[in-house]
Amino acid sequence: MNRPMITALTTIGIAQSLKIPINKWKTGKWDTGILFETGGMPSSHSAGVTALATYIALERGIPSVDFALSTVFGLIVMYDAQGIRRQTGELTIKVNDMDEELQRLTGMHDPAKSENQSVKIRERLGHMPEEVLEGALLGIVTGTLGHLLTGK
Q: In this record, what's one Pfam family (predicted)?
């Protein structure tokens, strides 16, 4: 059984599940659909890779090649989650706003005729830095717990 991988995948599931009550607290609405979406608090990407690196650090040691690989891989994933993917999400918001404004200006904006309106592009793709940090902290906790539960 590959305990580090199980720990990382479980952590991703925990992070994704935490998004539902956090979203309820922020918006006042239950939205179970966000369980399968990217973006939001905490970053499941950051949580998973940090859990993996933490488990490996405790199992094999910080000087190991395994830890070095998992850490570099994790840093790239976290940078991408809060950098490129976040910028893509912000650009998508602007495209959706431009589409709504164009419909309004051309007189096509009629809330009663929603079938004539174009479909909005999904906006929540990446993470704010604090969401990445929260995911990393969750990963440290679950990676440590996963290692302690192995009983070694």
A: DUF212
